[in-house]
C-alpha cells in the first residue's frame, strides 16, 4: 500500500520569537482584563455615592437658607433661646455639609488611587513583557549563531566529499572508462540547505510594543512624564506640578508629615 511520506517542517528562530510574542501578549492581556473586570462597577458605585453626597449637601443648604430667612424675618420677635436654637441648627447643618464634603474628597481620592493602581500594573506588565521579548530575542540570536556554525561545518564536509568524488571521476576518465559509468556530482551551495518553510520575514519584537500614546494624558513631575510607579503629592496648594515620581525627587518611602517639592521648598526658604 502506498503511503504519503511524512514531511517535517523546520521553523526558524524568527518564527518562534513571533509566536512567543503573540502568546505572551495574549497572556498579559488576559490577566490584565481579568484584573479590571470589576473596575467599571466600583467606579459606578463611587460616582453614585458622590452624587448622593451632593444631593444631601444641596438639601442641607436649602434648610440653611430657610432657617436664615426665618431668623432675619423674625429677629425682633424671637426670644434669645429661639434665636440660639436657630443658630445652632444652622451651625449643625454647616458641619454636616463639611462632613459630606470630606467624604466626597475621600471618595474622589479612592477613585483616583483605584484607577492609578491599574495603570501602574499595566506599566509593570508592559515592562515585564518587553523584558521577556528581549530575553527571547537573545536566545534566538544565540540559536542563529550556533545554527550558522553547524551549517558551515556541514557545508565543508559536503565539499570535501564532492572533491573526493570528482577526483575519482577524473581518474576514471584517464583510465578510459566508458562515459555511461561516470557519475555526475552537483556541488551544493550553502543557500540550498535552507528550507522555504523558514522564510518568515524579519520580525522585530519592538513592533509589538509600538503602541500609540494618548496625547491628552496629563504629565507630572520635574521630568514632565505621565503617571507611573510610586508618586507623592506636594503639600503646597499653589504648586504648579502637584505630583512627583519618587525616583525624581530622591525618595524611596513616603515621608512622615508634610512634604514639599524642591521648587516649593526653595520658595519657602526665600520667604
Automatic annotation (TrEMBL):
Zn(2+) 2 binds at residues 234, 239, 261, 264. GO terms for cellular component: nucleus. It is found in: Nucleus. This is Inhibitor of growth protein. Zn(2+) 1 binds at residues 221, 223, 245, 248. InterPro entries: ING_fam, ING_N_histone-binding, Zinc_finger_PHD-type_CS, Znf_FYVE_PHD, Znf_PHD, Znf_PHD-finger, Znf_RING/FYVE/PHD. Residues 151-162 have a biased composition (Basic and acidic residues). Residues 138-184 are annotated as: Disordered. The keyword Nucleotide-binding does not apply. Belongs to the ING family. Pfam families: ING. It comes from Perca fluviatilis.
